[in-house]
Amino acid sequence: MSTSLRSLLALIVLSFCTVARSQTATPPAKPDASAAIEKKDTDGRFRKMHESFLARGKQGPIGVLFLGDSITAGWIRAPHIWDYYYGKYQPANFGIGGDQTQHVIWRIENGEFDGISPKVVVLMLGTNNSGANTADEIAAADRKIVEMIHAKVPAAKVIVLAVFPRGARKDRDGKITDTALADAAKRMDVINGVNAQLAKLDNGRDVRFFDINAVFLGQDGKIPFSLMPDQLHPNAAGYQLWADALKPLLDQLMK
Fold first, then answer.
1. pLDDT tens, position by position, 5-59
2. What does the alpha-carbon distance between residue 125 and residue 191 come to, in Å, rounded to a whole number?
């Protein structure tokens, strides 16, 4: 056999081996939701909150359920407003600080909507994903959450709130750095993209998109520190604006 023929046969064998390896390679593992929970829940607080929500579902009827992250959990800063606007609707607050979309998906998968029948669910979620995920990814996750809610409670109406605006946060010296400004601008680009997609979920029936973000902005288009001192979480005055803006739609859907 000539040298050139041997070389050709060797190349053919090598190419077949390469194809075989590529076809039998083990696919990458899917992200483990439990791993995300373990990474977050280093002090056990997340699971304690989750257990408290399961207990709330067993305590009695829930008419309106708020679902989200620390912005939703922060209603505890304005209990008088919460009671005045929502007390008549047998409310429940399923907000956990730091939650991202994957955490809420895990919570629903692990029983938070089992055995309950809220008439309205108010969902606002995604700001904590805005630093690492794309608008498409966040919107897709929120869409999945809406689908999961309806799978658990088919008769529920879901109000999908636009993800609230956020601004540049001050550092420990009370200054706003260029880095903070750039991060806030980048996150708002993502949030605006998310909200544009969430608006398409509104079907005029059991899913309603509601954008109240303008109430948190001053004439200059920025968030007043008098409403969100940390440029992310409303204070009592901010929750008052939220309650006032939401009231007409919520009252309509709760009839």
1. 444 344 433 444 443 343 333 333 334 567 778 778 788 899 999 999 999 999 9
2. 10
Positive or negative: CA dihedral 195, 196, 198, 204? positive
Which residues are bridge partners to 207 per DSSP?
Answer: 158
Query: What values do phi and psi take at 237, rounded to 5?
Result: -65, -35
Q: Which amino acid is at 82?
A: W
Tokens of 172: 């420990």
How many Å apart are CA 101 and CA 95, to the nearest integer?
12
Report d(CA 252, CA 255) in Å as an integer: 6
Distance CA 139, CA 126 (A): 8
Domains of the chain with CATH codes? 30-253 (3.40.50.1110)
Q: Are 223 and 165 in contact (CB under 8 A)?
A: yes
Both tokens assigned to 57: 């579902």
User: Which parts of the chain have pLDDT scores under 50?
Assistant: 2-31
SS3 content of the chain, % helix, strand, coil (to 5): 55, 10, 35
Q: Strand 120-124 and strand 64-68: pairing?
A: parallel
In 9-137, DSSP assigns E strands to: 64-68, 91-95, 120-124
Which amino acids are annotated catalytic?
70, 230, 233
Element (H, E) at 209: strand 207-210
